[in-house]
Specification:
With about 575 residues, this protein is an all-alpha fold. It folds into three domains: about 180 residues, Growth Hormone, Chain: A (Up-down Bundle); about 55 residues, no CATH class; about 240 residues, Growth Hormone, Chain: A (Up-down Bundle), CATH 1.20.1250. Helix content is about 70%, strand content about 0%. The chain has a two-stranded antiparallel sheet. Strand 1 and strand 2 form a beta hairpin. Pfam families: MFS_1. Its main location: membrane.
Length: about 575
């Protein structure tokens, strides 16, 4: 198929001109919507409960359906995008996300809302890895890609942090469905814009797509995340509801890994994990999210239940964290160039640990300046860590497996978040419950109910009234703050463990020739219809330490554009120095 002058010009522009920054803008808007939807519902839960009257289990699924389904399908859609086209998967994700948002906004009962949230998870799983893998394709130069990833990670932080603020504003001024309705006009705009501007890119994998392996990965991740979440909401380690999914999921993931090692054309090349930079980056993402998300959940409870702030005010208090994360993302490329991945990720962990320990000074009275300063350090340190880890992970992975690598990174993000809620939530409960559960002067049934959470303790205290109610309320507040301090110390320990793990990352960021001049795929023409985005084929780097199926292009083979041979491009080693 011939390429018209317009399409050809767009191809050259995306590969080396200013249009790639327009592509980045579209990808960031896509990511912003997905990140917003992960947290925007949190402050709307009371309104949803009042309107739809869901049971406890239904309410849990309303909140968890989106992250569970999204985490389970990331590898499936990330690797599918490498095969059939990342832009194609991304545009389909836009459509599903917009349609699911409309259903969720006007859901008449809990069952339909749960189904809509699950469908949102499907759309999110299509969008998230596709944005990062397209970014990898249109920014072959590592220094420019580092800048792009800094912007990308900052947008993700902005979306997650502003979700509660936006949700609080919408719920207070409209109705709970408006938190979903805002997605529809944005998706209606970005779908045609993305169809026109975004380049198509594919990986270089040959052979059939491993459908069974993709389903095994999806079921395995779903089981692990579900089990971890059940542990996080109070299930015991011997509870079948938690351990059953967890063990089945772990077994399926083990089978998936074994299957990928045996296949000639795997979905995910497990040899990537043999590279210290890749495996360490994935581990650092897990540790960073493990420490952050559980803390964020506890911090929101502290702001609302101890300091008595409303949903909107709580969201505003978290804004310094967002602005600091934006600053870290904007300066991340310069920091990475000066410090290198090892020191950037390591010192990011240390700075975050210092911020977490600073929060232990907080008690039952508001100290806004202390809280703001700690949140600034926390946001900057954590975003610095995530930036360095994501950049190292994506740069270490071959360009033709960018979708699979991006999916692994996003799955690690989701697993870390779930594990953080489970681990830090368990630490919090273990520190909070004993003092409340055996409170003298309060009926045993009331003490037992109050030991579940601070919110429930307030409800029980209000029903009791009198001195017993006041005693229960005061004890629960002191116990919560005590548990918060212990949880912060545990979180700081996890962050320092991440700093030690970061010592395995490369000391410097090296940009080889292959980063600047990626070799196009040899197995298909670069041809693009004039009405569609340009085709940027997933490039293979030559000279990497780990060979990949079909790697290398014979000297006499050159890609064909409109029937004419393309000029030869230099290729070199794209590996980072260790």
């Amino acid at each position: 198929m011939s390429v018209t002058p317009t399409a050809g010009a767009r191809l050259r522009s995306v590969g080396g001109g200013a249009n790639r920054w327009v592509v980045l803008l579209v990808l960031c808007v896509s990511l912003l919507l997905v990140a917003l939807d992960a947290t925007v519902l949190h402050v709307a839960v009371p309104a949803v409960t009042e309107d739809l009257r869901p049971s406890g289990v239904e309410l849990l699924w309303i909140v968890d359906a989106y992250p569970l389904v999204c985490a389970a399908l990331l590898i499936l859609f990330g690797t599918l995008g490498d095969r059939v086209g990342r832009r194609r998967v991304l545009l389909l994700g836009y459509g599903i996300f917009g349609a699911a948002s409309a259903v969720a906004a006007f859901a008449p009962d809990p069952e339909i809302l749960i189904g809509a949230r699950a469908l949102l998870g499907v759309g999110g799983a299509m969008i998230m890895p596709a944005t990062l893998s397209i970014l990898r394709a249109v920014f072959p130069d590592r220094r420019e890609r580092a800048t792009a990833i800094g912007i990308w990670t900052a947008v993700a932080a902005v979306g997650a942090a502003t979700g509660p603020v936006l949700g609080g504003f919408l719920v207070e001024n409209f109705w709970w469905g408006s938190v979903f309705l805002i997605n529809i006009p944005l998706m209606a705009l970005i779908l045609p814009v993305g169809r026109w501007l975004l380049p198509e890119s594919r990986g270089g994998a040959d052979g059939p797509w491993d459908v069974l392996g993709a389903l095994m990965a999806a079921a395995g991740v779903l089981g692990v995340v579900l089990g971890v979440k059940r542990l996080g909401v109070g299930s015991g380690p011997l509870d079948p509801a938690a351990m059953g999914p967890l063990l089945i999921g772990a077994a399926l993931l083990a089978l998936f890994v074994g299957r990928q090692k045996r296949r000639r054309h795997p979905l995910v090349d497990m040899r990537m994990f043999a590279r210290a930079a890749f495996s360490t980056s994935v581990g650092c993402i897990v540790l960073a999210m493990l420490a952050l998300v559980g803390l964020e959940l506890i911090a929101v409870q502290y702001l609302q239940l101890i300091l008595g702030l409303g949903p909107l005010e709580t969201g505003l208090r978290l804004l310094p964290l967002t602005f600091a994360a934006m600053a870290a993302g904007a300066t991340g490329s310069h920091t990475l160039n000066r410090l290198g991945p090892r020191r950037m990720v390591g010192w990011g962990f240390v700075l975050t640990a210092v911020a977490v320990l600073l929060l232990t000074v907080m008690g039952q009275h508001d100290r806004p300046w202390l809280l703001t300063g700690a949140f600034v350090l926390l946001g900057f340190g954590l975003q610095t860590t995530l930036f360095g880890a994501y950049e190292s992970m994506l740069s270490e992975a071959p360009a033709d497996q960018a979708g699979g690598a991006a999916a692994i990174g996003e799955t690690s993000y989701q697993l870390g978040a779930g594990m953080g809620i489970a681990l830090l939530g368990s630490v919090m409960n273990a520190a909070y419950s004993p003092a409340v559960a055996s409170l003298s002067g309060v009926p045993a049934s009331a003490s037992s109910a109050a030991a579940h959470s601070l919110g429930e303790a307030y409800q029980v205290a209000e029903r009791l009234g009198g001195p017993a109610g006041e005693l229960l309320r005061s004890t629960a507040r002191h116990s919560f703050v005590h548990g918060l301090h212990i949880t912060l110390v545990v979180s700081a320990g996890l962050l320092l463990l991440g700093a030690v793990a970061a010592l395995r990352l490369p000391r410097i960021m090296e940009c080889g020739a292959a980063e600047k001049h990626p070799r196009p795929r040899q197995d298909e023409p670069v041809s693009v219809p004039a009405t569609r985005g340009a085709d940027v084929s997933g490039a293979r780097t030559v000279g990497t330490a780990v060979p990949h199926a079909g790697a290398g292009v014979p000297a006499g083979r050159r890609p064909q554009v409109s029937g004419r041979p393309a000029p030869a491009e230099a290729a070199g080693s794209g590996r980072t120095a260790h």
